[in-house]
Amino acid sequence: MKKIYKIIIFILVIILLTLIMTVFIMFKGAQKYEGKTLNLKYDNTWITTKQSNNSVSLTHKTGGRLDIKVEEIDNERINNSIEEFSSDIAYMIDQLDSSYKLISNSNDKITKQGYEGYKMLYENDNSEILVTIFRKDDSLITITYTAKSDNFDILLDSVNTIVYKMEVGRI
User: Fold this and answer.
1) In terms of Cα–Cα distance, which of 96, 87, 76 is closest to 133?
2) What is the largest CA-CA distance in the chain?
3) Which residue segment(s) compose the domain that 164 sits in?
4) Which long-range contacts (CB under 8 A, 24 or more apart) does 145-154 make?
């Protein structure tokens, strides 16, 4: 009977050590970006490649790219709806590169703070782009995730987690 208790205790210690190591590895691999208007947390497969007061660009080791930009909405467009902003962006994408075709768009909650926004998915022969926009007060936040078609879905969960946990301040 004592032998069984020793085996059970040994197994529980192994499980506990495994959990502790897993948590340690997860926190060790986490990175932060803290800017004037943006705070992000992301894993160590992403690196910050460009940053300014109101924007940041992250690049994944597979080549995927995540660009986040916070812009103050000018007085002429302050009363525009999020749908009007999404139409403007769709028009710009079509003008810049007509090889991209709109696959889907949806109105959705974007961050854990519950901001309503728009997601637009585009693709061409070898890559995909997800453009996400939402509004906070007098700021428009534009998030562009670009990756080769082979990697797009693989990185999408990571991108969604970064965006969901993102904190946006005032400009």
Assistant:
1) 87
2) 80
3) 31-168
4) 145/64, 145/65, 145/66, 145/67, 146/64, 146/65, 146/67, 147/60, 147/62, 147/63, 147/64, 147/65, 148/62, 148/63, 148/64, 149/123, 151/60, 151/62, 151/63, 151/64, 152/64, 152/127, 152/128, 154/62
Residue 17: inside a domain: no
Q: What is the pLDDT of residues 16-26, one digit of tens each?
A: 777 676 555 55
- CATH number, position 58: 3.40.1000.10
Amino acid type, 3:
K
Instruction: For residue range 15-72, list pLDDT tens digits in order.
Output: 877 767 655 555 456 788 888 888 889 988 999 999 888 899 999 999 999 999 999 9
